[in-house]
UniProtKB/TrEMBL annotation:
<dbReference type="InterPro" id="IPR013766">
    <property type="entry name" value="Thioredoxin_domain"/>
</dbReference>
<dbReference type="InterPro" id="IPR013740">
    <property type="entry name" value="Redoxin"/>
</dbReference>
<feature type="domain" description="Thioredoxin">
    <location>
        <begin position="17"/>
        <end position="168"/>
    </location>
</feature>
<feature type="region of interest" description="Disordered">
    <location>
        <begin position="1"/>
        <end position="20"/>
    </location>
</feature>
<dbReference type="Pfam" id="PF08534">
    <property type="entry name" value="Redoxin"/>
</dbReference>
<keyword id="KW-1015">Disulfide bond</keyword>
<dbReference type="InterPro" id="IPR050455">
    <property type="entry name" value="Tpx_Peroxidase_subfamily"/>
</dbReference>
<dbReference type="InterPro" id="IPR036249">
    <property type="entry name" value="Thioredoxin-like_sf"/>
</dbReference>
<protein>
    <submittedName>
        <fullName>Redoxin family protein</fullName>
    </submittedName>
</protein>
<keyword id="KW-0676">Redox-active center</keyword>
Length: 184
């Protein structure tokens, strides 16, 4: 797949998880320097937000907008992933009072590669495409958007609608089970 960077076609490295497919586990670094894994099966719905760089206006505004939109969701693990350096991200989170989502960094580009978002060339080489993934509690991708042009924003309304639907759905007990395929 490719996106455009200021109109220039730019290929992405990796394979994007498909809608309805399993979300891969990806290793990220928390602001305290510890490692964590996001994606896959989890007790709560996950919203994974790929942010190319908080040093740009579109990205910093997007992070703040998501932070405001997510304050009402209690059973949601919202994670904003960026390839910026750890110290910068710590300062940004504190200065902008980002508290409805966890800001993390992807120093090894593990998340970027596993979600097919790593920019392969040009001035944004080794950054991520702007994207969102909503992952249900069974670890399946329920919604995804990879923004076609890097300077454009995500469709916040569609993303929040997908989050709201999953956070407020009642579990029926029917669905995907990671244990089922392992016992076959």
């Amino acid at each position: 797949m490719e996106i455009t960077v200021h109109g220039t076609p730019t290929p992405l490295i990796g394979k994007q998880p498909t809608l309805g497919g399993e979300a891969p586990a990806a290793r990220i670094t928390k602001l305290d320097g510890s490692q964590n894994v996001i994606g896959m099966i989890a007790p709560n719905t996950q919203l994974l937000i790929a942010i190319p760089s908080l040093k740009t206006e579109v990205c910093s505004l997007g992070a703040k907008k998501f932070n405001d939109l997510l304050k009402t969701f209690k059973k949601l693990n919202a994670v904003m992933v960026t390839t910026d350096d750890l110290d910068f991200v710590k300062d940004f989170a504190e200065k902008e009072s980002i508290d409805a989502a966890e800001l993390v960094v992807d120093p090894d580009r593990n998340f970027a590669k596993k979600y097919g978002l790593l920019i392969s060339e040009g001035k944004l080489k080794d950054r991520m495409a702007r994207a969102v993934y909503v992952i249900d509690r069974d670890g399946l991708v329920a919604y995804r958007e990879i923004v076609p042009e890097i300077v454009d924003e995500v469709n916040y309304d569609a993303c929040i609608e997908a989050v709201d639907k999953l956070v407020n759905e009642k579990k029926t007990g029917h669905g995907h089970s990671h244990e089922e395929w392992m016992s076959v």
